[in-house]
Design a protein that fits this description.
Blueprint (H helix, E strand, L loop, with lengths): L14 H16 L6 H8 L3 H9 L7 H14 L7 H13 L29 E3 L13 H10 L8 E5 L6 H14 L4 E6 L3 H14 L5 H4 L1 H14 L4 E8 L2 H4 L13 E7 L12 E4 L5 H12 L5 H10 L4 H14 L3 H10 L25 H9 L6 H9 L8 H4 L2 H9 L14 H12 L3 H13 L4 E2 L8 E2 L2 H11 L6 H18 L9 H16 L4 E2 L3 E2 L1 H12 L3 H18 L5 H16 L3 H18 L5 H16 L3 H18 L5 H16 L3 H19 L4 H16 L3 H18 L5 H16 L3 H18 L5 H16 L3 H19 L4 H16 L3 H18 L5 H18 L1
Parallel strand pairs: 1-3, 2-5, 2-6, 3-4, 4-5
Antiparallel strand pairs: 7-8, 9-10
Length: about 900
């Protein structure tokens, strides 16, 4: 039928179809230009092939949800009351009660084109060879089926060869069977269903077809000759035919046995199902159709039909998501739930706590003729992939992917040195000689093979796994080149641990190798979304590995610390606090409160808490941690000394500048005693002592201390070491603090050249140096030049660090301020207003940077002419500063002075 033909299934006897036809006619009266099959399918959400099947009478509605959706659409177009689900259910029950028609293949043949060689009036015997699988219970019409039918065209002659490719369990055979049954109903004259798992199976099916067609009798004694006769017949006949090659496993099995493709005018068509995505199965005359999982709507419709209308939609959707929308898994889950008389929630609980083998029916209770449980669905493909070159690596590589993120795994992780070492260790051993020894040439060959497991080798194995539909490998994707179905992952993991004596050790090796691989490729500066992808993979690995990555024997894997800290390094300090708190809970549970890693994550948690704006809370947490560190590790342990460093720094951030300076001075004495004067940690403490003196207002003393530290770091670390360069930055800033802004700008210009040479132009420290250079340039009197420099810097910061990174937000603040200093107070105010909205969202209302933005915003409001508004803003700000920072904090004191200024200005 064409798309706009009338909905009129003639002579079907179906009350449901008759009612649909009536609604169709009424709808066309009220909406003559709108009512088409395609529009009905689009609006109702029911596949066009389903609507077409009902319209032609080729199929009757079996899915109540779809029927309700189509009926409601037609009724709305017809301006009639919407029939209820109960109304349609009654009509469906009446149709089920009527006598069944005679099967199409035993009753009178459907009209079909007459053979070219026979008179039109001569009867034509229709031939069907092979057993078409029965339709699955509650079989779903799917969009992919519509694609296949559309490609086949009217009469099944549009696309002569279609290859349905997809992983095991997605329903390829059911789709092919539905297509075959439809073709038979529509009158195809010869239909051959071939079990194509082996070459012998293909040859035998062709030979049976030759016999049924009365081709030369030699075929009965010589199947190969009979198969050739059948292929010749297919190329020369005028009769319509369809050959279905189901479950092709190796391209070589079909070599020389492809039915002819260039016969579409005569009605020949080939449909292939396979798990392979081989180039050998593609071609100019073959159309490959990727078959994936159910859509969310298809999965919901299927489960509702299987489990009943009373199951909440949320439960159906959650179960479908748990099983990754895989049709085979959904069928077996529904059968298990029905057999066990349990609901979705209980089934999901069992699925989460049991092996897959124990969450599907036994072999005697599999639904719809499924021969293998879902956990074993992919084993044949894995075995076949393992035999492909480079042999022996498919399964261990699939094991690595099984513990990572199903939504996307960076190929760089799988080609990192830890991953390559793991794969090398799992190459098969050379086969023994007949006398029990090992041939020397074989040993040498094995050694060479192990030496050549590199990135190119891994790429080859990924293509093998891709061709066998065990994963998706997309070289064009950005950092998510590999995707794996979650059930394939789970089946692989469970198969790995199936042997009690080896499983736990092998699984631990996989998890450790995957963790090492992710850690190795983590970039020092995150960009292009890679950090987010690596964190997602870390989360997936942690969920799959359980206690493997965190146990008393090995402690917490460094990857877990990296994943939590990377959030803060990317500017997401609030998320870093939450992630560190989660890791602390894990360590507390799996390692105990006194394990060094538990103490370490407590320190990280306190540090990010301070970075998030709670300096007082961070100081209190570090004080508590220090007591435990001294008790567990001792007062002179490096981790204890580091905790003292963090405690002193937090005290300074909380406003106790003098206390911080005294704590750092006391710590320096112990550092020199325990670690020595030249230890990097001792030098870092000298850096902190000098910084504390600067914060306390002793600019000259701080400058002298940093000059001495610079000399020592240059001597010990070299002039190009990052720590030496950082010290030069402080020396330059102190030069400006002492009143020489122009000299500070010149020093930063010189430092920038070295930063770009040593660290590169996009390193965060290089960007920070550019910010300092621009800032001191403005302090030296060139406000317009500073604003221009910050505008240029902001573009690079957004590209490298992202728009929400604290350094990016700080650059926006400086740009706004220097814009105001250059004479445009209104523009400064507008820019700070936009910045405040972003800082509130990213950092929260009580973060020091948010409070500073409010302070600057109030100032430029006054500078723009609204002195009274500025005073009001300072009053509201002062209330929050007193609450968050306290009355003695320098920022609170400064805000109080500025409030007085703008109050006075408002009176004038």
């Amino acid at each position: 039928m064409v798309a706009d033909s009338p909905f009129r299934p003639q002579g079907s006897g179906s009350r449901v179809l008759a009612e649909l036809a009536r609604l169709w006619d009424q709808a066309r009266v009220h909406n003559p230009g709108r009512v088409t099959q395609k529009e009905l399918a689009r609006v109702s959400g029911v596949p066009h092939t389903t609507v077409n099947g009902w319209a032609t009478g080729a199929a009757e509605p079996r899915n109540l949800d779809q029927l309700v959706q189509v009926g409601a659409t037609l009724a709305a177009w017809a301006n009639e009351p919407l029939p209820s689900a109960r109304d349609w259910d009654r009509l469906m029950a009446a149709d089920r009660a009527r006598p069944a028609p005679a099967p199409a293949d035993v009753g009178p043949p459907a009209p079909a084109p007459a053979p070219v060689s026979a008179p039109v009036s001569a009867p034509v015997e229709r031939v069907r060879v092979g057993v078409i699988p029965q339709p699955a219970d509650c079989f779903q019409d799917r969009q992919v089926a519509e694609d296949v039918e559309a490609a086949a065209g009217e009469g099944g002659t549009g696309a002569p060869v279609q290859v349905l490719a997809g992983t095991g369990g997605v329903g390829k055979t059911q789709l092919a069977a539905a297509h075959a049954r439809r073709a038979w109903r529509q009158g195809v004259q010869v239909l051959v269903w071939v079990e194509a798992a082996t070459r012998d199976g293909i040859v035998s099916a062709y030979a049976r077809a030759a016999a049924r067609l009365g081709l030369p009798p030699a075929g009965l004694d010589d199947p190969d000759q009979a198969a050739r006769e059948f292929l010749v017949w297919a190329e020369t006949t005028g009769r319509s035919w369809l050959v279905v090659l189901d479950d092709v496993r190796r391209p070589k099995d079909v070599a020389g046995l492809w039915p002819p493709a260039a016969v579409s005018a005569a009605g020949g068509q080939v449909l292939v199902t396979t798990r392979l995505r081989e180039a050998a199965l593609a071609g100019a005359d073959r159309r490959t159709v990727g078959v994936g999982t159910f859509s969310a709507a298809e999965a919901r419709s299927y489960l509702r039909a299987k489990l009943g209308d009373d199951v909440p939609v949320a439960d159906l959707d959650a179960l479908a998501a748990d099983l990754g929308f895989l049709p085979l898994a959904l069928a077996q889950a529904a059968a298990y739930a029905a057999n066990a008389a349990i609901g979705c929630a209980e089934y999901r609980r069992r699925l989460a706590t049991r092996l897959l083998d124990h969450a599907v029916p036994g072999e005697d209770h599999l639904p719809d003729g499924h021969r293998r449980i879902v956990a074993a669905t992919w084993e044949l493909s894995i075995d076949e992939a393992g035999r492909a070159a480079p042999a022996g690596l498919a399964r261990p590589l699939l094991c690595l992917t099984s513990v990572l993120d199903a939504a996307g795994i960076p190929q760089a992780a799988l080609t990192s040195p830890p991953a390559l070492a793991y794969l090398t260790s799992h190459l098969p051993d050379p086969p023994p000689r007949g006398d029990g020894g090992v041939d020397a040439a074989t040993v040498n060959k094995a050694t060479v093979n192990k030496a050549t497991v590199n990135a190119a080798t891994v790429d080859e194995v990924l293509r093998v796994l891709h061709r066998h539909s065990l994963l998706d490998h997309d070289r064009t994707a950005a950092h998510r080149e590999i995707r794996v179905h979650r059930l394939v992952q789970r089946a692989t993991r469970e198969n790995l641990v199936a042997r009690p004596e080896l499983g736990p050790r092998l699984f631990a090796e996989v998890a450790a190798a995957a963790a090492d691989a992710l850690l190795r490729v983590w970039p020092p500066v995150e960009r292009d979304g890679l950090g987010e992808i690596l964190r997602a993979n870390t989360t997936a690995l942690q969920q799959a590995a359980g206690t493997v990555l965190c146990n008393p024997g090995a402690g917490a894997h460094p990857l877990l610390f990296q994943a939590a800290a990377s959030l803060g390094h990317a500017g997401r300090v609030t998320a870093a606090v939450a992630a560190s708190a989660g890791l602390h809970a894990t360590c507390l549970r799996d390692l105990g409160p006194d394990h060094p890693d538990t103490l370490a994550i407590r320190g990280n948690l306190a540090g990010w808490r301070g970075r998030a704006g709670d300096a007082a809370g961070a100081a209190a947490a570090f004080a508590e941690l220090l007591a435990d560190m001294e008790r567990v590790l001792g007062p002179d342990h490096p981790a204890t000394l580091a905790t003292r460093t963090n405690l002193a720094g937090s005290r300074g951030q909380a406003g106790d500048v003098a206390g911080a300076a005294a704590a750092f001075a006391e710590l320096l004495t112990d550092m020199e005693r325990v670690l020595g004067p030249d230890h990097p940690a001792t030098l870092a403490t000298r850096h902190n002592v000098a910084s504390a003196r600067r914060e306390a207002g002793d600019v000259a003393g701080a400058a002298a201390a940093f000059e001495e530290l610079l000399a020592d770091r240059s001597r010990l670390l070299g002039p190009g070491h990052p720590d030496t360069l950082a010290t030069r930055s402080h020396v330059a800033s102190l030069r400006g603090d002492a009143g020489d802004a122009a000299g500070a700008a010149a020093a930063f210009a010189e430092l920038l050249t070295d930063m770009e040479r040593v660290l590169g132009p996009d390193h965060p420290e290089t960007l920070a140096t550019r910010a300092n250079l621009a800032g001191w340039r403005g302090q030296a009197g060139d406000a317009a030049g500073a604003a221009a420099a910050f505008a240029e810097l902001l573009t690079d910061m957004e590209r490298v660090l992202g728009p929400d990174h604290p350094a990016t937000l700080a650059a926006r603040a400086h740009l706004a301020s220097f814009t105001g200093e250059a004479g445009d107070a209104a523009e400064a105010y507008a820019a700070l207003e936009a910045l405040l909205a972003d800082r509130l969202q990213v950092l929260g209302p009580d973060h020091p940077s948010t409070l500073t933005t409010r302070r600057n915003l109030a100032r430029w409001r006054g500078e723009a002419g609204d002195a009274a508004g500025a005073a009001g803003a300072y009053e509201r700000l002062l209330t929050d500063l007193l609450r968050v920072l306290g009355p003695g904090h320098p920022h609170t004191v400064a805000a109080r002075e500025e409030l007085a200024y703008w109050r006075e200005a408002g009176r004038q």
